[in-house]
Amino acid sequence: MIIEHKMAKEKQETELEITNETDTTTELTVEKQGKELIAQTNLSSSNLIKEFEREQLKKQLPEIYVGDTVKVGVKITEGNKERVQPYEGVVIAKRHGGLHQTITVRRIFQGIGVERVFMLHSPQVASLKVERRGKVRRAKLFYLRDRVGKATRVKQRFDR
Length: 160
What we know:
Radius of gyration: 30 Å
Low-confidence stretches: 18-31
Structural class: alpha+beta
InterPro entries: Ribosomal_bL19, Ribosomal_bL19_CS, Ribosomal_bL19_sf, Translation_prot_SH3-like_sf
GO molecular function: structural constituent of ribosome
Family: Belongs to the bacterial ribosomal protein bL19 family.
Number of strands: 5
GO cellular component, one term: cytosolic large ribosomal subunit
GO biological process, one term: translation
CATH class of the largest domain: Mainly Beta
CATH topology of the largest domain: SH3 type barrels
C-alpha cells in the first residue's frame, strides 16, 4: 500500500510538472505575441525604411580612407554570363553614410584619367580590398585631376 501511495504521488507530481510546463509556454507565447503586436503597431514608415536599410548593409567591409589604393571587384553581366572585373585605383572621395555610402576611385588608363563612383553596399560590388594605405591631409583629393604622371602618386601610410 505504501508503494502504491508513492507511485500515485509521483504520478501526481509528474502531471503537475507537465501542466506547469504547458502553462509557462502558453504564457510565453502570449507575451511574445503581445510584444510582436506592440512592435508592429509602433512601426512607422520611416522606421520600416530604416529597418529595411539595416538589413541590406554589407557586414564585411574593410575600413576605407581617402588616399587608399583599393581593388574593387565589379560584377558585369554579358549576355547569360556574369563575371567579376577588378578595378584598381586611388580613393579620391567618400560621400554619405549607411546604405548610400559611395567612394570615388580614380586611376590612369592608357594615359587618360578614369573615375568611377561605387556604392559600397550595392550588389554590383562583389569584393573590396585595400591594397595600400595612403597618407593625405585632405578629405577630397580632387587636385589629383590636374596632376600628370608621377605627381599623381600618394605617399604610403604605414600606421593603419
